């Protein structure tokens, strides 16, 4: 029964293949959802446990990598430095919000949810009989399905649990699931970046509905931009244009999708289309261009970024802090501070990346090295696990990073790291060992359970080495994926058979490996900035940039110089 539930979405799609819905658009359907207090019978409480919400910042799309700044000034001088001349109070940032709080309720307080305590949700997928019992003990049975999917969205419930709910609903209704329930499930899939499930729901909606409500189009566009079917978002954008003007969010997501897939001209044309229709882009859209441009040597594209800055100037627009940081990072990324020339990017192009990926997987994973540290059975279990997951943004060596701070409880360190990263709506994989789940003073069960709720986790046998797992997961996820570990990977680099592969591996490692710069329990974690330029002798014809070793600095073979000599030809 459980196997059937877990594979629900595709079988559910098959139920609808011959049910082309020719009725009215969902925009013409009215839904009335009432909320009331409910209770569960004691006999059912074994299916439920308290599920606390984990807040996610769904607007954040980039890694939180910031440079640590230090100051030797006294507290008095620092306070003077931080103070600044304030504009007229009427125009000071935050004045309007403070006034609204003084003279009236906050906007979100006017429509507060009627329940103040965490709700009880299933902790595992339920079968039909179990869902029947749950509904039987629910007071407002006519709103049970819609209410339950809303709670799953609110508390970021497991996709498998939501699948079991919709599978139960489909069985009761001859394979039909209502539009509002579909939207709720789609919202959950998009928030967790479950691209495969988003595609499945998209196919169902294409078959069942001629047009969608704006919310449906918005969710599908946002969910599809990370998939190989991202060009479908352009079709959806055209569908919106038939009935209304697309929102800045619709345009912004399509632009992000184009940039994610290296379609720079398409992204820029969509941006110009927005301006022609007098639609002001949101800050995330502006930021996406600057984030894409880091380390890109492309003079025409740089001119486009300067056009964005001029647009902000002419319209008296003030960037948000994250956007300002992106602008700063773009100016600093790969430019020589002496002459301003762009240095060669450290990032691999698509051809180099595919070459490295195949060689690493062959030489390191298939070359016999991993079998001395784990078993073929566990390797197969891991590979199947990776294939069942969406691409990751960050892969974490859970055991390795927690050893960096021996005075802090390991599970606390891991929870702080995962919590900060997942708040940026990034897909995270944590690799660890099975002993981390046994419970101890260093590995508390409740903290490890919280980690498993926020991220994908794979726990290998205690005798296994997880370096090969980390490399496999990172390379399999794509060139955007980074990994967090203090391991320098020297053993795996030594397994590579030729100089070109070793050089590409080292470049890839420098551009993708994250390391801690500072950490204190409960505080914001600072990561060291990832290198954006290649540390090799470079020339552009009339200039030379030469990295060199300082006399007083002893550099190991796996380290790179930090000093550069800039030589320019004088006219």
TrEMBL record:
InterPro entries: MRPP3_PIN_dom, PRORP_C, TPR-like_helical_dom_sf
Catalytic activity: Endonucleolytic cleavage of RNA, removing 5'-extranucleotides from tRNA precursor
BP-aspect Gene Ontology terms: mitochondrial tRNA 5'-end processing; tRNA 5'-leader removal
GO CC terms: mitochondrial ribonuclease P complex
Protein's cellular compartments: Mitochondrion
Record-annotated membrane-spanning stretches: none
Matches recorded under CDD domains: PIN_PRORP (cd18718)
Region (Disordered): 69-92
Alphabetical keyword list: Hydrolase, Magnesium, Metal-binding, Mitochondrion, Nuclease, Transit peptide, tRNA processing, Zinc
KW Disulfide bond (keyword) present: no
Protein name: Mitochondrial ribonuclease P catalytic subunit
Organism: Phascolarctos cinereus
This protein's encoding gene: KIAA0391
């Amino acid at each position: 029964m459980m196997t059937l539930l877990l594979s629900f979405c595709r079988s559910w799609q098959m139920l609808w293949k011959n049910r082309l819905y020719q009725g009215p658009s969902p925009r013409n359907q009215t839904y009335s959802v009432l909320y009331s207090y409910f209770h569960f019978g004691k006999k059912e409480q074994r299916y439920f446990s308290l599920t606390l919400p984990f807040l996610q910042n769904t607007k954040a799309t980039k890694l939180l990598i910031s440079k640590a700044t230090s100051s030797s000034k006294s507290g008095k001088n620092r306070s003077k430095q931080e103070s600044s001349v304030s504009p007229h109070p009427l125009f000071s940032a935050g004045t309007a919000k403070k006034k609204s709080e003084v003279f009236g309720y906050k906007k979100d307080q006017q429509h507060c949810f009627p329940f103040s305590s965490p709700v009880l949700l299933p902790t595992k997928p339920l079968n039909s009989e179990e869902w029947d019992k749950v509904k039987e003990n629910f007071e407002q049975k006519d709103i049970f399905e819609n209410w339950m999917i809303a709670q799953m969205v609110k508390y970021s419930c497991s996709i498998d649990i939501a699948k079991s709910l919709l599978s139960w609903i489909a069985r009761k209704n001859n394979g039909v699931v209502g539009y509002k329930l579909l939207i709720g499930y789609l919202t959950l899939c998009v928030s967790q970046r479950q691209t495969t499930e988003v595609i499945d729901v998209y196919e169902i909606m294409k078959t069942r509905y001629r047009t969608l409500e704006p919310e449906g189009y918005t969710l599908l566009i946002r969910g599809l931009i990370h998939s190989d079917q991202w060009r479908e978002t352009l079709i959806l954008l055209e569908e919106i244009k038939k009935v209304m003007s697309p929102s800045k969010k619709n345009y912004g997501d399509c632009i992000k999708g184009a940039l994610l897939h290296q379609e720079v001209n398409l992204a820029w044309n969509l941006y110009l289309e927005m301006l022609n229709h007098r639609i002001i882009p949101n800050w995330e859209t502006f930021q996406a261009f600057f984030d894409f441009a880091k380390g890109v040597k492309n003079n025409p594209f740089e001119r486009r970024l300067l056009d964005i800055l001029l647009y902000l100037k002419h319209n008296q627009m003030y960037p948000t802090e994250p956007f300002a940081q992106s602008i700063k990072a773009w100016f600093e990324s790969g430019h020589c501070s002496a002459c301003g020339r762009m240095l060669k990017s450290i990032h691999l192009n698509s051809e180099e990346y595919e070459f490295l990926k195949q060689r690493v997987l062959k030489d390191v994973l298939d070359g016999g090295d991993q079998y001395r540290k784990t078993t073929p059975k566990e390797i197969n279990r891991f590979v199947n696990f990776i294939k069942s997951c969406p691409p990751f943004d960050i892969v974490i060596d859970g055991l390795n990073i927690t050893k960096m701070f021996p005075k802090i409880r390991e599970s606390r360190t891991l929870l702080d790291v995962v919590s900060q990263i997942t708040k940026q709506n990034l897909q995270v994989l944590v690799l660890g060992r099975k002993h981390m789940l046994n419970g101890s003073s260093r590995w508390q069960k409740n903290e490890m359970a919280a980690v498993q709720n926020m991220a994908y986790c794979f726990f290998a046998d205690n005798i296994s080495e997880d370096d090969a797992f980390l490399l496999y997961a990172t390379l399999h996820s794509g060139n955007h994926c980074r990994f967090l570990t203090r391991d320098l990977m020297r053993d795996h680099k030594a397994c590579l058979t030729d100089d070109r592969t070793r050089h590409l591996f080292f470049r890839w490692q420098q551009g993708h490996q994250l390391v801690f710069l500072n950490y204190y329990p409960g505080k914001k974690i600072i990561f060291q900035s990832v290198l954006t330029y290649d540390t090799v002798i470079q020339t552009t014809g009339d200039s030379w940039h030469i990295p060199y070793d300082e006399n007083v600095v002893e550099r190991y073979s796996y380290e790179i110089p930090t000093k550069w000599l800039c030589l320019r030809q004088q006219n």
